[in-house]
Structures are given as C-alpha cells and as structure tokens.
Amino acid sequence: MNDQAAAVNSNEAAAQMLNASQAGRTCDPADNAHDLSLLKPEQAQSWTEKGYFIVRGVVDPETCTEMTRKAIATFTRAEEGQSGLGGHHIGEDGSIAVEEAARVNSGEAADQRMSKLFNIHRKPIFRDFALHPEIRTIMRAILGPDAACFNSQYIFKNPGVWGQPWHQDSLYYQFDLMPQIGVWLATSRATVENGCLFVAPGSHNEPIHAVVPDARPGSNYGYLEVVDYDFSAAEPVLMEAGDVLIFHSFLMHMSNDNKSDERRSALVYHYANANTKHIGIQSKTIDFMRV
After folding, report:
1. What is the pLDDT of residues 26-44, one digit of tens each?
2. Where does residue 10 rank: exposed (0-12), middle (13-18), buried (19+ CB within 10 A)?
3. If phi over 0 gives left and psi between -120 and 50 gives alpha, with beta otherwise, what is residue 133?
C-alpha cells in the first residue's frame, strides 16, 4: 500500500472513531466566557456572536520571518529522526514534522514539502508568543486564570497546496472540558489567493458535527470534512503578518487552496483550561504548558 492509499484508509478510520466519540458533544455558552470585560467591547461582541475576532499587529514582521526560519530548520532536523507513516518524522527534541502527503518522496527541498511542524511551544521565540501578555489576557478573559497552551503547529501552505476542508477543532480533542481556544498567528499575509482561512460565523453554537474523510485522492492525514451545514454565509479571514485570529474550537472553518506563487505560513496554538483531562487516547501532539 502506498502512502496516499494509507492516508485514505487512515482518514476513514479516524472519521469513524471520532464520530463515535465526539459527534454530538456540545459546549455550554456559559463556558465560553470567564470575564469578557478584559476584552475590548468589539472583541467581546464578536466572540459572543460570531465565535472569533482578530487582533491586528500583535507580532512584528521581523519576528514572523525569524519564526519561519526557525521552523524550517527544526523541520529539517526532525527529518533526520524517527520516521513514521506517510512522511511523519519525530525529532530528537520531540518536534513532529509532517510532509504534504502529495509531496512525500518528491525530492523537493524540505521547505517545499513541509506541511505542519508540531510541539514547538516550549522552544525559544515560539514560547515567547505563547506567553505574550496580550494573548494571556485574552485567555484569562475566556478561560479564566488557569489556562494552558496544549498544542502548537507551524503550518506551511506552499504554492499549489490544497486547503483543509470544513472542520471544527474540538472534533480532534477528546477532553472533558470545553471549549478550547485557537490562536492563529499569520507569519505571512493570508489572502483568498494564497489559501486564507474561511469561517462560518455563529457556528460555534453548533454541537460537534459528524464528519466524512476528505474525498480528494492524496489529501493529508487527518483531513476530515463537515458536510451537513450551510456555509453560504462564510467569511474570509484576511490577515497581514503579525495579525492574530482568536477562535472558538467549535467554530467551523476551512482554508482555500494556494493558487498564488507565494507561501502562506502561520503559527497556530490551542489553549484550554489547565485542569483539562483526556477522555480518550492522548496524542503525541498534546503537551499542556501553563501560561
């Protein structure tokens, strides 16, 4: 069986498992806010009504460029470590490098094959962002004083790379407490042409929906799709390097294919109440760090 066929089978199994354990779970709106007075009024309103808001210019562009440089270097080192199925590599430092499924064994440079790099929120420069004062204030407003960053991803979407279909992040996190909070730092500009996110405003009030595997041959591992929701009111999230999207883990979102000649990159963290416990198998990409 080749890597792409393995990815298809893996996604079918993942969909069945997650539908059985996660679909139908709900988030009590009372758990979406600890003290929203810590936010700007427009942020609090957008969070409550839409399930997301954007904070502009949190990180300077030079730092974004350095993050990308360090991510590529870490990915390259991880490729020298243990190799798993379909272009997954575990580095000696615990980072997990994942290649684009369609580019595994392509012979291209590491930065052209890189899809995601996990487990970096304890590393220099990346830890600084996890502990950024503005981000910490937002986490306290939503989650309360005992918050933790538990998942980190550096995402590359190179020219020609497919987007990820509609999904809810909480599908993937088998925890006892809801919600989790996504913090999406654009380290390059994000446009409709280069594969920006789209969100479905208000869908954070939905339960976790059942999913089907991404039907495209050669799609990445873990690409599962919500198909039973009306996405006609979807909005693009247009960002410049240094902007941050804060979003609810039940919010349905997707990304476009990159049809441009420029890379779109992002540093994505997920936060939760630090007392959260697993109710399923613990992924190797979960590492709670109090903030």
Report:
1. 999 999 999 999 999 999 9
2. middle
3. alpha
The larger pLDDT score, comparing residue 268 to residue 104, is at 268
The residues pairing with 268 across neighbouring beta strands, listed in sequence order, are 153, 184
SS3 of 106, please?
coil
Taking residues 222-233, report their average pLDDT: 95
Q: Which residues, in sequence order, are CB contacts of 233 under 8 Å at separation 6+?
A: 200, 201
pLDDT of residue 84: 61
pTM, two decimals, is 0.94
Closest CA to 268 of 175, 186, 190, 146: 186
**Residue 207 pLDDT:** 98
Please give the C-alpha separations between residue 267 and each of 16, 38, 124, 125, 241, in angstroms, as whole numbers. Answer: 29, 24, 14, 11, 11
The rounded radius of gyration (Å) of the Cα atoms in the chain is: 18
Residue 64 contacts residue 72 (beta carbons within 8 Å): no
Three-class DSSP category at 185: strand
Give CA–CA dist 175/232, Å, rounded: 30
| pLDDT over 80 (residue 269) | yes
